[in-house]
Write a structure and sequence with these properties.
Elements lengths: L3 E5 L3 H12 L3 E5 L12 E3 L2 E3 L11 H10 L5 E3 L4 E5 L2 E5 L6 E3 L4 H8 L3 E3 L4 E6 L4 E5 L4 E5 L1 E4 L3 H8 L5 H5 L4 E11 L9 E4 L4 E6 L12 E5 L1 H6 L5 H16 L6 E14 L7 E4 L4 E4 L8 H19 L1
Parallel strand pairs: 1-2, 1-13, 2-9, 6-15, 13-20
Antiparallel strand pairs: 3-4, 5-8, 6-7, 10-11, 11-12, 14-17, 14-18, 15-16, 16-17, 19-20
Length: about 325
């Protein structure tokens, strides 16, 4: 029997669950507060320059994830990143060869979410505010008072604190979600006027201020002009989360120039993004939460692995569990 599912959040977990449920013949509506699907797997374009300011790449180690991508995403949307990689350790840059391929979306990480959203009913710029239940169905209401539904079941893929707020009073899952910690992270995007590039294309940083730095132009499908993404250390970001953007940029610029012995110079294009829920500090440890009696579920990369592949595994486990619960 076909069911009606509402999914809050059009990140990788939500889109995975939506596609799997749709493929089983169910009606699915995905609601997201952002302007486009994909969640943190996103690309920001500024004056013709693009930056992957969320996850810079992802791995494919699960055969089920590989099969899902092959069936859901056209091959031009994905490519291996054949860059030069290193890690910054004790002030030294140490070249490294990744043990497994690093993949990126083409022409940006945002292409993955757009591809997964094709053929799925996704409504963007909808900020889910609360859930209401009648005798046999759920309704989602947004901040403007608009309602969506009715649904036989609702899946919440928002970060744990936001998911707990929606589920509170409806399910004991809220108490499980509330203590799941998420890290803050600043992403600084800059295209230097002088064409300065980093000494390696992707650099993992063991540094008090820096976590990651990359040459975006080294990825397939990007413009050739230098574009850098610098992501701050999670602990440092949390300690400075409320500082002025100009102060954050100043700290990151100084840290980059000192750590990599270069001079960035003026910025032709520049932006700063603060991810309040960048990544799970300690994943939940199980792929999803299901309340079969309430017909509610929660999933996301915060539950399982803290990665794009983990988001897929969480979303697919959630879809399977709900299908079994209704069966």
């Amino acid at each position: 029997m076909a069911r009606r599912f509402g999914i809050i959040g059009a990140g990788i977990a939500g889109l995975t669950a939506a596609r799997l449920l749709r493929d089983r013949g169910h009606a699915v509506l995905v609601l997201d507060k952002g302007r486009r699907p994909g969640g943190r797997a996103s690309t920001r374009a500024i004056e013709g320059v693009s930056f992957d300011h969320g996850p810079p790449w992802f791995a494919i180690t699960d055969p089920a994830f590989r099969s899902f991508l092959d069936a859901s995403v056209a091959s031009p949307c994905l490519a291996a990143w054949h860059g030069r990689f290193a890690r910054l350790e004790s002030g030294r840059l140490i070249p490294e060869t990744p043990e497994i391929p690093r993949f990126v979306g083409v022409p940006g990480m945002g292409a993955i979410g757009r591809a997964l959203a094709e053929g799925v009913d996704v409504r963007v710029s909808v900020h889910a505010d609360r859930l209401e239940r009648s005798a046999d169905a759920w309704t989602v209401l947004d901040r403007d008072g608009a309602s969506f539904g009715p649904f036989d079941a609702v899946i919440v893929t928002a970060p744990p604190a936001q998911a707990a707020s929606l589920l509170r009073g409806h399910s004991s899952m809220a108490a499980t979600l509330e203590p799941v910690p998420m890290a803050v992270c600043f992403s600084w995007m800059i295209a230097p006027e002088g064409g300065t590039v980093l000494p390696f294309d992707g650099i993992r940083c063991d540094h008090p201020v820096l976590r990651w730095a990359s040459n975006e132009q080294s990825k397939l499908g990007r413009a050739a002009s230098p574009a850098l993404v610098v992501q701050a250390d999670h602990a440092w970001s949390g300690a400075h989360r409320d500082r002025k953007p100009s102060e954050i940029v100043g700290h990151l610029r100084s840290a980059v120039e000192e750590a990599f012995a270069l001079r960035l110079g003026p910025a032709r294009v520049e932006s700063l993004h603060r991810w309040l829920f960048a990544q799970s500090i300690e994943p939940l440890g199980r792929p999803c939460l299901i309340d079969a009696d309430a017909r509610l579920a929660a999933c996301g990369d915060w539950a399982w692995g803290g990665s794009i592949e983990g988001a897929f595994q969480s979303g697919s486990a959630c879809a399977r569990a709900l299908i079994e619960a209704f069966a």
